[in-house]
Amino acid sequence: MRPRAAAGAAAVAVALAALLGWRLAPEEAPAADTPATLAGPKLMAWPPPPGAMATSTTATAGASAPRAGAPLSPLGEAERRAQRQLWQGRLERARATLDGYRASAQYPHESRPIEEHPDQLRPFDPIAEERSLRMPGGTAPQGVKLLTTQERVFASGTESSRVTLALQDLQGRALPLRVSRAVIREVTPPGATARTAEFTPDANDAGRAGDARAGDGVITVLMHPAAQGFGEFAGTVRLELLLDHAGQPGFLYFDLVYSPETAAVWLPGVREAASPAGIDFFVKAQVRLPGRYVVSARIDDAAGEPVALAQFNGEVKAGEQEFRLPVFGKLLRDKAPAMPLKVRDIEAFLLKPDAFPDRVMLPRRAGVQHTSRVHPIASFSNAEWSGEEKTRYLTELTKDVDEAERQVQRLGP
Q1: What CA–CA distance (Å, rounded) separates 108 from 255?
Q2: The domains spanning 111-119+262-379 and 141-145+160-255 adopt the same CATH topology
Q3: Phi, psi of 400, deg, nearest 5
Q4: What is the pLDDT of residue 264?
Q5: What is the pTM of this model?
Q6: Which residues, at least 6 apart from 119, have a Cβ–Cβ distance to it below 8 Å?
Q7: pLDDT tier for residue 34 given thresholds of 50, 70 and 90
């Protein structure tokens, strides 16, 4: 290699080594107040800290570190732009998170617009499914559909759950279906022995044992643990069905999570109290088992249009207790529902953490349970919900935005 070419190659090698040494240098410690939401790959400070571009002792006589304010190399400029783009993306996400929280935190947790909870709109509707007529691992025949419903999946005390089955062709015409075997049994862990005997329920289309109408092609089976030998059992009760249609077999099962306990007994009536903060509805119960109760009610307007989901979630003692179900004032101002309001479909359970079943249901209070007085919408406050939790979240989310803005400005245009 010619001397001039060798010197040139050495200079290039030194420059690359110096740049690589800076890229691999230990990263500076993040600021103590760097928010958790911006956690991720650490970014090197820009411009590089003094000494990061230290020259090599083997550099040629003309090589030296860039002077302060000197233009960056194309590679350094690309690195700066990449960092700025990353922080700009973080800034946009931080702003969106802050704006989203502000919008959602206008109302308290226990009083929310019903559209936020579409699954809570009709809580007592049976669970309806379209399933296949087949054995496990087998194939299903073409041109038929098996329609099933289950009234509930949690039950307590003397509650029951009605299961229905109907076989149809693709035009919706009823097809003959036979239940060749039906059994209800407890579901036990692997290796465990069942503590209760199996029960054979009445699966019929004859208008008895819970069947709504005889001969309509809908077979009904009633799961009623307290009356079927499971009154002392807490856990999952399973209904297993062997089916047959024109020689085509099928198998289905339905699970019901059951608790024999009675947590509380409802007391009659619903009380209401209005103020500028909103309308509070109170339901009363005689609590037998103290603990955390979750109570939910749907609030409709005068025309039956859903407005809000009102909830209670808190610890209560044994004895006669009231559960407060609030409808927030600003929510009423924003929705402007037609008065009077209607309270319907109240459901409740005692939560049992670290246990199975994890809840004890209270009896359902289906349908309209109370109609409110007529309150002028203008009588309610338009103020947003405020509280320690909201202040704390807004403070932390604002820190995220401020930090991202500082980094974007530091990295320049």
Answers
A1: 35
A2: yes
A3: -60, -45
A4: 98
A5: 0.77
A6: none
A7: very low
* Percent of the chain topping pLDDT 70: 83
pLDDT number for residue 283: 98
- According to the 3-state scheme, what is the secondary structure of the chain? CCHHHHHHHHHHHHHHHHHHHHHCCCCCCCCCCCCHHHCCCCCCCCCCCCCCCCCCCCCCCCCCCCCCCCCCCHHHHHHHHHHHHHHHHHHHHHHHHHHHHHHHCCCCCCEEEHHHCHHHCCCCCCEEEEECCCCCCCCCCCCEEEEEEECCCEEECCCCEEEEEEEEECCCCEECCEEEEEEEEECCCCCCCCCCCCECCCCECCCCCCCCCCCCCCEEEEECHHHCCCCCCCEEEEEEEEEEECCEEEEEEEEEEEECCCCEEEEEEEEEEEECCEEEEEEEEEECCCEEEEEEEEEECCCCCEEEEEEEEEEECCEEEEEEEEEEHHHHHHHCCCCCCEEEEEEEEEECCCCCCCEEECCCEEEEEEECCCCCHHHCCCCCCCCHHHHHHHHHHHHHHHHHHHHHHHCCC
pLDDT at 70: 54
Q: Which CATH superfamily is domain 111-119+262-379 in?
A: Uncharacterised protein PF16024, DUF4785 (2.60.40.3870)
Of how many residues is the chain composed?
413
Task: Look at residue 32 in the predicted model and tell me its pLDDT.
Answer: 38
- Asked whether 346 and 323 are in contact (CB, 8 A), the reply is no
- In words, the CATH class of domain 141-145+160-255 is mainly beta
